[in-house]
Amino acid sequence: MIKRDFDAAAKETYDVIVVGGGIVGAGIARDVALRGLRTLVLDKIDFGCGTTSRSSRLIHGGLRYLKRFELGLVHQDLRERDILLRIAPHLVHPLSFVIPITSGRPLQRLALPFGLTLYDLLYWRKSLPSHQRLTRRETLDMEPNLEPKGLSGSYLYHDCQAPFVERLCLENVLSAAEHGATILNYAKVMGFLRDSNNVSGVMAQDQISGETYQIQARIVVNAAGHWVDTVHDMLGKASRPMVRRTKGIHLLTAKFCRNAIVLFALSDARLFFVIPWQNYSLIGTTDTDYTGDLDAVKAEANDVAYLLKEVQSIFPNVASDDIFYTMAGLRALAYSKSRRPEDVSRSHKLIDHEREDGIGGFVSVLGGKITAYRAVAEQATDMVCHKLAVKAPCTTAEVPLPGAPMVPQQSLQQAASERGITPETVSHLASLYGSRFSQVLDLLNNNPKGGQRLCPHSQDILAQVQHAVEQEGALTIEDFLLRRSAVGLGPCQGLDALDLVGGEMARLLGWSNTELQRQVDAYRSQAALGQRFRTSGPA
User: Fold this and answer.
1) Whether the model pTM is above 0.90
2) Which of 10, 140, 314, 475 has the fewest Cβ atoms surrounding its Cβ within 10 A?
3) What b/e string do you get for 412-422 counting C-beta neighbours within 10 Å, with b at 16 or more?
4) Which CATH code fits 92-159+246-331?
């Protein structure tokens, strides 16, 4: 359970404060808490609301990084992929990838078999099958919507998907809380407490009440993602940027593929994906430098046109009218002067500011992929423990996340029968909460209306709203629709469920009519970013 209490936090002296509740910050908080250190997590908005929730939702080794011979990065990520399959089997699932082979690209035909063989060998203990070559006929049988002209066959390989990566982030937060961490969302860091040249805590503002609190800590870890420079700058220490921000967008469309498809753009040879997700297709991503508003990232018309044109080269029937909405997010890559954003390494970097600029008690975490979040967290926590002279082993590769293990199908069918709701709904709840799905169903004991579907586009039910507020720290409509449930990820962007969800949250949180309307308007504004490309010109 997430219990939000600023007053209690202000009375405590923590071993570690983690600034940032994205998946890296959440992973660090979990690791630190599991090692027995007093831990506080602060996020200025909500857990996973930035880059984490705007990703391609893949857990993968990164086939394209072989092109730059980043073998260590690929090996690490393949190992982490298998760890996540063990500790979070309810949230991370195997996914087949098809790479179409077309005429006119001899280098591709020569390089792919070598690269895929290397991909298979880099982590020999892998739990997924090795790649194989498919004929033209086998390829079209698997993906009948592919353009047959010029198609000579394909390669099939296997990686993983985290369909609800927001829940993967949240379960790390919940695990940290279970092991004693204090969790505060809507807690904006306004500055730092200092003891000479050492950071000794933070000044954090409760974004709900407006009050500011001083909170003490032995070490502060800056894991704020693409806000990492903003947080560091509060120390008043001028320096060059630590991260290079690049924008990636995704399009959600009607479903037109059965497997994940790996494509190489005709215009610039960039690798991108078409991914089956829920009952739709997710197309992405782009990679362009970004210097705009960090809190209102959106897809521009030219971003969408680029992806759409490249997809149409091999899926000619996909049209702009098929796009439901767009998502846009920022990568916070460890700073590099590489000319092209796609050439910047996805490897992470840890900065001990005591060595870097003479400020003790302060560590920054830069870059890293979602796949490797646990490994990044382990290395960051090792650094923290070394600085605190604490000897405690990392156990995050062995301890399952809260929703593990997988729930047997028979148990799901029994629960559906006992509760009088459809097996599809119970299966969906298990895909979000894992073994904790029963906590949601238990709420139906006192609220029979809790089984009501929220939206025609999803299987989510009203009881999830109560569970999100009481157990998972949801404080806004956006928190629930986009990060506690799957409702806002469907084609209507949650707008069809807005009144029902808003009314239930108002009841649970005691909102006035004015506050309810403010929440509704705020969510509509957020959803509108996903439609902005329809009216925007070239960026």
Assistant:
1) yes
2) 10
3) beebbeebebe
4) 3.30.9.10
